[in-house]
Amino acid sequence: MVSVNDFKTGLTIVVDNDLFTVIDFQHVKPGKGAAFVRSKLKNLRNGNVVEKTFRAGENVGRAHIENREMQYLYASGSEYTFMDTETYDQISLEEKQLKWELNFLKENMNIHIMSYQGEILGINLPNSVELKVVETEPGVKGNTAQGATKSAKVETGLNVQVPLFINENDVLLIDTREGKYISRA
Q1: Are 58 and 70 in a shared domain?
Q2: Could you tell me which PANTHER family the record lists for this protein (predicted)?
Q3: Which domain holds residue 103?
Q4: Beta-carbon neighbour count of residue 94 at 10 Å?
């Protein structure tokens, strides 16, 4: 058990038999009435973000999430196969479990699989990945102030806004949390 007074961003908790990670929290002490903690929680099973208020001092269950390093091997239909880098065990995940992550997933990439009591919750990508540009318009010099961008399609199918000097076959560093261009690799 963990007290809501000890909330930290990234803490994983169990509330009403559901798994949540704390995204944001705020301790509120009104002038009249009891103190409380207002929190924003992300459901690890379905990805929904909910706001929940707890009384100060209330206890919630703490969930211990296991992270195993695995390597993405291949896709077969709507199933994606991963291999444990230590035991060589293979598991398959459905496409619906990997909605956002598919924008960054390349074969032979090492990732972490999150699981709770044997139930696979999803994957953790590195904060940034290197992806090759497969399609973009040539940059045109001209009437640009600063920070002009254009759209580029990378090898996984993701469209990213990039500076005008980026060309096809360039390898880019892409932020996996927001899907934004960082720099050339």
Answers
A1: no
A2: ELONGATION FACTOR P, ELONGATION FACTOR P (EF-P) FAMILY PROTEIN
A3: 66-124
A4: 11
